[in-house]
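Please, structure for the following, as tokens.
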Amino acid sequence: MPIAVPNIPAQYRPSIEHSIQYDSNGTKSNDDFVHPKYVNRYSANTVFNCEQCNDDNKYLKLKLEIQKQIKSKKEYHQEWDTKFIENEFDRCTNALLSEIRPDLISVELTSEQSLFYILKKKSFTLFFQYFLSENEFDSNEEALLSIFNDDEKLPSREGDINSVISFAKEIVSK
């Protein structure tokens, strides 16, 4: 029977046999066990950060979704390496999850060569579009943001990814 560890995917939950450890005297001890993937984030003496676990679950679901879209929408990114799209997805998604901490989030790979996110946080709905650019000399990365508080349209923002996400964080944190 798996140990009940909140919000950690079932495949990473250890069985009771794995949680039995031996001290230096060879005596069994039932110290808390954390899968090696989570060792750097959690320790047996740390309270689990459930918000971080929720973000991890959101990230994993989005990652699977974007991988499906990359395969099914090849005409949108024929000239780009799949790894490039996944790296840009990782960078953008991690920034959104860590800064805005949305209640709900979805992503779409668009025909405009962008990643389009819809985020929901409290009464706010955010539409965030990040345009992919593989040109390393193009310092003009572009992100667009539209925010609604219920049905009220709030100011939009465009610019680089960091300034747009900072602006969004200020709005939804109020």
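The chain has a mean pLDDT of 76. The radius of gyration is 20 Å.
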